[in-house]
Request: fold
Amino acid sequence: MIKRGGKSGEWLQQLVFVGPGLIAFSIIVLVPFLLGFYYSFTEWNGLDLNKAQWTGMDNLNRIFMRDDKFWAAFGFTLRFTAVTVLASNLLAFLLALMLTRALKTRNLLRTVFFVPNVIGGILLGYIWQFIFTKGFKTIGEMTGWSFFEQPWLGTAGTGFWGLVIVFVWQSAGYMMVIYIAALTGVPKDMLEAATIDGAGYWQSIRKVTLPLIMPAVTVCLFLTISNAFKMFDLNLSLTKGGPGTSTQSLAYNIYAEALVNNRYGLGTAKAMLFFLAVSLIAVTQVWLTKRKEVEA
Amino acid sequence: MNRDRSLRYRLAGIEIFAILLALLFLAPFYFVLANSLKTLGEILVDAASLPEAYKFTNYSRVWEMIRFPTALRNSVVITAISVAGIVTISSMTAYRLVRRPTRFNNLLFLAFISSMIIPFQSVMLQLVRVTSILELRGDLLGIVVCYLGFGLALSVFLFHGFIKGVPLEIEEAAVMDGCSPYGVFWRIVFPLLKPIAVTVVILNTLWIWNDYLLPVLIIGSNKDLTTIPLAVTRFFGQYTKQWDLALAGLAMSVTPIVVLFLLLQKHIVEGITSGSVKG
Reply:
């Protein structure tokens, strides 16, 4: 056992090792989070930060009874999450399957598919704004394909799919890296045994590979669900929630309520509901997929 | 060998398909680079063609307009100091939490892990209040402290998992030789944490470098601290549809992080893998 300096030495060590982290974590995360429970029940604006008026259930009543835009944003976020989680994981898994084969350009291709990930959502949104409005138009004129000739980002539908395309394009590479690591860990002899037993390619993927890489599936689902559900940067730079408010995500709706409408109290109430929704979804998903994990 | 040949054809088919898909993935970058060298008129006529002449006037103009050198310097300084702070503080905290699992320390670890689920939006407004009281808004120290606070949870978690696997015998031997507890950590344990420290550095760098909303709230009013994402957003707020300048600005803004990635990609991919598998 390490015994040096006795009890006061122990205290000093606790202070030196844990103190800075505890202080930073408390003032930046813990205290603001706990304050959220208070400010949710107040009328509070961004101009007089130090004046918050207790209003009881007013904010919650308002959100549940009258705030259609909040619930529209909720529905939008759920749809967006469902579509992007499915699409990016399927694409990522497909890429991982291809790029674990003995391809000559394997390493180069892995790099290419990963690159969009290092660029932030703000910059990507602006880049794709150009692609959708100008690039797609030119391609449409060249090819005559109606897919490109739609008013991209100009309608609720194209705005939704525009966000989906960029999100999947950005996140697939990250998930691919995780799937590749998992696929390399699948024992070759188990796949050979399945082939000898007469299993086809897709059958052995479904029955052998997939159960063995369930831990990676859990992680990738968790990451994509939480990133999609919390999408903000991309929303801000690609569509600004528009046209109108038709492509507002939950995170964007909260941002607009607080920083555009200057209703901090109402924004905080929404943000705490947002927190509840995120936790509920994340816990359920991890619980569901953890049950499916097996030992190799 | 018939089977060999069909397998080779199949592989070649997969390779061609994958390459086509990769070109599709890269197409947006082509659009940005090609059009950043054109005049606005050329862009509006045909956004798909290569530029007729390679003129860098868009670049030199937007370089001044968004004050790119300042933004780049701020992004580098804020990211570097915050990441260094996160690595230092979270490794020390994690070490203590592993080696002294008192009731308080276990509870603290649980608090760190649970906090990872809190969305940024759920603390941001109250954080504005707290940071104004503490006079942390509008300066470098303030934004760094914020990044420390938000970056700790995941980093402590990653270090915690790794330190559990560091054998205690080495530390005991060092104590026998008269090493202080602080010396044990910095000279014996910390060097052993290098693999996971690389992961922590990479994950936090990508996040802080690209972060937008926190800098807006904390340093938004102080133009001297504008980071790259803030500078680009401000440009788009002022000059809508000035695509010739905007694309040049976007091209120069994504360059630093893309170059960094290409130089360090082996570490980055390994770092991300070990970071997510532990999680």
